[in-house]
Amino acid sequence: MEMGRHSEEEKVGYIKGELVYTIFHNETEHFSIAKIRILETDEDFQEKDVVAKGYFSTLQENTPYFFYGEFEKHAKFGMQYNVHSYKTFIPDTKDGLVAYLSSDIFYGIGEKTAEKIVGKLGESAISKILNDPKVLENVPGIKKEKAESLARTLQENQGFEHVVVHLATYHIGLKMAQKIYQAYKEEAIDILEEDPYRYVFDIEGFGFQTADEIAGRNGLAPTHPNRIGAGCIYVLQKSVQEGNVYMPLDECTTRVLDLLATVDLTHDVIHNRLTELNTEKKIILQEGNVYLPSLYYAEDGFAAQVKRIMSEETDHETPTAELMKIIGSMEEEEVLSYGKEQFEAINQAIHSKMMILTGGPGTGKTTVVKGILNAYASIHNLSLNKEDYQDRSEYPFILTAPTGRAAKRLTESTGLPAVTIHRLLGWDGVSGFEKGESEQLDGKFLIIDEFSMVDIWLANSLFKAIPKDMQVLIVGDEDQLPSVGPGQVLSDLLSSGYIPFVRLTEVYRQKEGSKIIQLAHEIKNDQATNLENDKDFSYISCYEPQLLDVIVKIFSKAMDKGIEVRDIQVLAPMYRSQAGITMINKELQKLVNPKTPQKREVRTQDAVFRVGDKVIQLVNQPEDGVYNGDIGEVVAIFTEDENTDNVEQLVIVYDEKEVVYERKDYTNIMHAYCISIHKSQGSEFPIVILPVVSAYNRMLRKNLLYTAITRSKQSLIICGEQRAFVRGIETMDTNKRYSALKEQLQARLEKPLDVSEEHEEEDISPYDFM
Ligand SMILES: Nc1ncnc2c1ncn2[C@@H]1O[C@H](COP(=O)(O)OP(=O)(O)OP(=O)(O)O)[C@@H](O)[C@H]1O
């Protein structure tokens, strides 16, 4: 590994300089634009500062760098330095080196030791040490520990940059380079050159094609076992992204063959390689199914946790008469009479170690959850009010949901505190969850809402943390879209018959005359729908070319009526297309928050964010307390001169929480006048506008439209082509997810299944088609 003078140094010019401020930094593409104070250059350039742009990482302040590149005239911004590569400046004179090595960076190295090192190893001491730390053994009088610590610090300081620069030559981005460096440290480049396919195994998200390209350049045979192995892993990773927990062996083999596209490879060769990978524990072959290990352990582990929790008895027997009395007084208080199914749900939940409550909108899930909480509190003589507990940690009720918005809704509907599952388990965003088998949750009664959104990994993590004496209520609508992550945990739990469940079918809100609820149930039950206008529903017929105009008109009318922008939500299935989310957002921004001289704005490659814009967070950012799907508003934009951090800042408010974004974070947000139906899972909005046109056909499915429709609380406006809508609700999601949870659970049953015929029938629909 040559760390000395850069190979391009002789060919292109250089600028030695320090960061003044970062103008733009895109974390995904690791593209940066920065203002640099010039310390030294061989370029013919007389200014004090220069704007440098290129693929480099976030630059540190007060650190000299060498940038290699050439000047380029930008039509709008003038002369800029186009950076090909860069590195931190390391002194290469004797005095400079002695000063560097005896600086604070290297603990325990004084001037004398530094002089000895430079005396022995010469001016290229640094690259010699980085190449082989053993060279320090030749330096007289330097202790082994000091030598090791010096080499380590050097590697930490220089190694990363070296790896980044090298990987960039293979067009590997900075973010990926960071992951790679974390995994392999300074061995990263050696590994890449010897066996690029190892990256596919070890580095999440590293593409097979990139490895293939590098291996091809290095002359590796297309039938090499490393290539076949990486192909297998890659196919499995892709399948997980599609929602599968495993793949059947034959399908996996065929897909690997397609990917490798090499005539000399046969089914048998791939089978054999999969068997070897199984022996090496890189994959798990179980009953003709191929798993990535993390998914096998999640599925197997979750089934084991369910069994563990279910095998404990509830510690309290409640006589029916007592429960009847409690339910009776709750009915009086709530001024309602629980339906038969609802009564059954309360009764079962109180007596079951774990129960699932499922049902469509308006069937009374919230009403029943409140009933269960009150009944439980009353039986156990507990207060539901957290304030009544001197030691707050003794509060026995835990309410949780997979997203921030769903947790907020749970709080609103029950009046009790609720948190996200990640927060409950103490997720720090890096090393995993605080809570687990060794440190379980404190509490007596756990309610998990919106369970259809929970994937097999999260389900396993959550259930590990449930102590044996905790009672659990799982709530979810089985007809919603399945989780974004792998698995179909709710539907597998229901169809396994392992956990008691109550399915609410009688619709109560419909009695209040809700067309939205009626439509949702018609879709759910495959009944004919009509799109006739009603007091909470309108259908506006239009074709795709008119769609943007129609949406803008509806929005504008609503605003004229004084409805707040945050209460109107457009939901669409896809980003691209003339009628996609991106275009709808552009048009609505023009209407809702147009450009004015007074309003500040920042421009990114894809969008203009303006003060007043409604935006959505796209990734989890636990350090700031914002999560994927949170919706907020841009409230301020500061230029770099206006704050002490000297960087441009965008301030977004989410439910009174303020989060400051720098340029590098702008890719984490987008406009939210229109959001995707997938992102709307777990949220509800007073008014939903749902465009449905045939341009979306590829995406339109029954469960997608059902999810969209059930997001609206007060008013639903469908606009577009009735034909596309009808086709959509008639299209089942045929992408069946491969998951063996149901079988895993059934294998753990001690006595044969007692699934009634009715349930068996319901078993087939609709998940067999998903
Ligand atoms: N037994 C009942 N008698 C009268 N009204 C009821 C009964 N059960 C529920 N309701 C009413 O029906 C409406 C819907 O109930 P609830 O909000 O509990 O349903 P939900 O399943 O949680 O619906 P969603 O999923 O849409 O929030 C509420 O107004 C509630 O008060």
TrEMBL record:
GO terms for cellular component: exodeoxyribonuclease V complex. The keyword Translocase does not apply. Residues 156-246 form the ATP-dependent RecD2 DNA helicase-like helix-hairpin-helix domain. Residues 671-718 form the UvrD-like helicase C-terminal domain. ATP binds at G362, T363, G364, K365, T366. CDD domains: DEXSc_RecD-like (cd17933), SF1_C_RecD (cd18809). The keyword Transferase does not apply. Its EC number is 5.6.2.3. This is ATP-dependent RecD2 DNA helicase. It comes from Oceanobacillus picturae. The gene is recD.
